[in-house]
Amino acid sequence: MTSSPTASHKNAPPPDDQEFVMRFTSTPRGARLARLLVGERLDAWGVPYRSPAHDTLSLIAGELCANAVRHGHVPGREFRVRLTMTAEVLRIEVTDTRTERRPAGTGRPSTPPLDSETGRGLLLVAHLATRWGVMPRACAPGKTVWAELWTDLARHPAGGPCRARAERTTGP
Fold it and tell me: β-strands 131-136, 89-96: how paired?
């Protein structure tokens, strides 16, 4: 019987700092693939599917990637996802090449009209993430929207429970 590479993490100690970086086509299919690969990577790092940290960061990744496609799309350009994990912080960064469509990076995002079918993605991110923000893209036009989820992986190798912080900030 062979075991999958992700099944062996159940009793493993938390890994050292991890990083995953990849570019995706700026399409709905690219956003979906990015979300799925973030979930796969988290599981491989010892944050299993259906754990609170996995589900929360996968949802945040899905929202940020969808926003990069919908609001940050520049024809012929890709968006980039960077996922990092330390013993206490899961961080996702989604970078696109559109500078002028930048969300407000301070405070709570604005609430859309009640009859609007869109506009709640960053509200979700602000609610779920411990911290989130926006920064200019390094060395090129564009922006990076990032979110952090503070967890205690050292005591909870299964990736949870998440330690929610009452204070939400948008600084790096």
Answer: unpaired
Amino acid of residue 81: V
Question: What is the number of alpha carbons within 13 Å of residue 37 lying toward its C-beta?
Answer: 18
For the entire predicted model, the pTM comes to: 0.74
* Rounded CA separation 98/73 (Å): 7
List the structure tokens of 69: 């496609």
Distance CA 167, CA 63 (A): 21
Contact indicator for 69, 26 with CB cutoff of 8 Å: yes
Please give the pLDDT value at position 101.
57
Q: What distance in Å separates the CA atoms of residue 98 and residue 77, rounded to the nearest whole number? A: 9
Cα 17 to Cα 3, 64, 131, 151, distances in angstroms? 24, 22, 19, 14
Q: How far apart are CA 150 and CA 161, in angstroms?
A: 10
Q: Provide the residue type at 73 as one letter.
A: H
